[in-house]
Structures are given as structure tokens and as C-alpha cells.
């Protein structure tokens, strides 16, 4: 297995659910050849959000962000692919949708930093921590895709 093979967590936030764009967004990752290995819907508790956004505790946007994340349930997805942590962050774009370039998810769908559609783990350490926070090991599925050779060089991990 390539040492570049990683997993990351994305969260389709309540605005994505309300606007009915969950499928469109997940489709982008599938079209890129990124594999879905876990997916579920959940209402995020105070406790989970306190853990998830622990590094932002005390900042002006901490409480509003928690409130926003609890407006509706969210969709949580674990994605797998080569260097997928960085690739997915790039596909999401910068935090503030108004500064995010067209072609990125936030650039195409978000007009405000407070309503930015999607969360994606920041780095490999965060991905490990966040996947563990939301998913049991039995909720993540490793499997082979027969057409993987058409998305990347499987032998060389390139
Ligand atoms: P991310 O990794 O790009 O999601 O950005 P951060 O980790 O810096 O922030 C976490 C989340 O808090 C963001 O995705 C936004 O939902 C929210 N957030 C960050 N900065 C602000 C801000 O200045 N104002 C508001 N209202 N929300 C913010």
C-alpha cells in the first residue's frame, strides 16, 4: 500500500443540507477518484463540537459556529485516497467563501465565512483525531475498486 494513501473527514454542514447540494458536493470527490469509506448523518452535540473546535474556544466565532453547526443534522464522510487530506482541503478552498476561488467548493457555493458549506480536516493529525471522534472502526469500510488503475498508478502509488 502506498505511504501516500490517507483518510480524511469531511462534514457537509447544515447549510449544505438545507440547500440540497450534498449530492453535488460528494459527487465532486467521487469524480476526482476519491473513495468514500464511511458516511452517516448526525446531529452534533455540544460535547462533540467542543472537542471538534477545541482550538477555537474563546474566539469570537466559537459560539456562533457551534450554533450554526446545530441548525440541522450534518452529513459526515470519511474519504480515502492518495494525499487526500491536502487534496480535499484544496478542493474545499479557503475558509471565507467570499475569498475562495471559483472552482473550489466554497468558492462556488459559499458567500460568507459563517456559512461555508463544508468542513475538511486540516492535516493528517487532525484527520486521525476527527475520524476517531465521529466514527467507530466498524463504521469504516476498506474495499478495492476494480477501476482504480484508471484513476492512478496503483503499483507506484502515483
Ligand atoms: P476551516 O479549517 O477552513 O474550516 O477554518 P477554521 O478551522 O479556521 O474555522 C473553523 C470554522 O469556524 C470555519 O469553517 C467557519 O465555519 C468558522 N469560522 C472561522 N472563522 C470565522 C469567523 O471569522 N467568523 C465566523 N462567523 N465564523 C468563522
In short:
With 158 residues, the protein is α+β, with helices and mostly antiparallel strands. It is 35% helix and 18% strand.
Which features would summarize this protein structure in a list?
single chain; 158 residues; alpha+beta; Alpha-Beta Plaits; 4-stranded antiparallel beta sheet; globular
Describe the structure.
This protein is an alpha+beta fold. The chain is 35% helix and 18% strand. InterPro entries: NDK-like_dom, NDK-like_dom_sf, Nucleoside_diP_kinase. One of its GO terms (biological process) is GTP biosynthetic process. Keywords: ATP-binding, Cytoplasm, Kinase, Magnesium, Metal-binding, Nucleotide metabolism, Nucleotide-binding, Phosphoprotein, Transferase.
- Describe the largest sheet: 4 strands, antiparallel
| CATH architecture classification name | 2-Layer Sandwich
Taking all Cα atoms into account, the compactness measure Rg is: 16 Å
Described by the principal axes of the CA atoms, the overall outline is globular
CATH topology: Alpha-Beta Plaits
How helix-rich are the residues, as a percent range?
A: 25-40%
**Helical region count?**
7
Q: Total domains, how many?
A: 1
The tally of strands reads 4
Mean pLDDT: 97
Amino acid at each position: 500500500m502506498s505511504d501516500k494513501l490517507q483518510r480524511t473527514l469531511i462534514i457537509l454542514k447544515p447549510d449544505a443540507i438545507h440547500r440540497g447540494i450534498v449530492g453535488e458536493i460528494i459527487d465532486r470527490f467521487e469524480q476526482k477518484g476519491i473513495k468514500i469509506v464511511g458516511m452517516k448523518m448526525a446531529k452534533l452535540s455540544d460535547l462533540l463540537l467542543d472537542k471538534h473546535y477545541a482550538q477555537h474556544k474563546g474566539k469570537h466565532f466559537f459560539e456562533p459556529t457551534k450554533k450554526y453547526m446545530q441548525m440541522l443534522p450534518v452529513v459526515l464522510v470519511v474519504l480515502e485516497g492518495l494525499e487526500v487530506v491536502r487534496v480535499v482541503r484544496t478542493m474545499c478552498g479557503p475558509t471565507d467563501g467570499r475569498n475562495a476561488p471559483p472552482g473550489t467548493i466554497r468558492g462556488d457555493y459559499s458567500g460568507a465565512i459563517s456559512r461555508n458549506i463544508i468542513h475538511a480536516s486540516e492535516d493528517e493529525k487532525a484527520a486521525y483525531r476527527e475520524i476517531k471522534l465521529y466514527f467507530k472502526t466498524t463504521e469504516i469500510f476498506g474495499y478495492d475498486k476494480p477501476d482504480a488503475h484508471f484513476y492512478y498508478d496503483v503499483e507506484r502509488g502515483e
